[in-house]
Design a protein that fits this description.
Order of helices and strands: HHH
Number of helices: 3
Oligomer: single chain
Largest sheet: none
Shape: rod-shaped
Radius of gyration: 34 Å
Structural class: mainly alpha
Length: about 120
């Protein structure tokens, strides 16, 4: 009606409203499809975000575990060096070794808590 009022349509053009209804119906149908697709994309994005977040956590834990493994190996080397020199390890060396083992065990437990599919060390 507004188009008639401002002169963009003539009364003769009113006959083509059936075609416009068809076009409008098609547009509304496509818009509904787009909304459904948008909703699906949003849910997929949220799922992928969660997966990426979990993967980053696993990578951090694995890196922490590699550091703990290196610390345990270093402590073991120090203890073996002390034994080769025929001396007993110092309290400091024993404490460092015990702390390194505790840190590694904690990292292993954290990885295992995420599930067996994430623990591949």
């Amino acid at each position: 009606m507004i188009l008639l009022y401002i002169g963009l349509l003539d009364f003769d053009d009113k006959a083509s409203e059936g075609e416009e209804d068809e076009v409008l119906g098609e547009l509304q149908k496509r818009q509904a499809e787009l909304r459904a697709l948008c909703d699906r994309n949003q849910s997929q994005k949220q799922r992928l975000y969660k997966l990426a977040k979990d993967q980053m956590k696993r990578q951090e834990l694995r890196q922490k575990m590699r550091g703990a493994d290196n610390e345990v190996l270093e402590c073991f080397r120090r203890l073996m060096a002390a034994r080769q020199k025929k001396r007993s390890p110092t309290k400091k060396e024993r404490d460092q070794a015990a702390r390194a083992l505790r840190d590694r065990d904690a990292a292993v437990r954290q990885l295992e808590a995420m599930g067996p599919e994430f623990y591949s060390c």
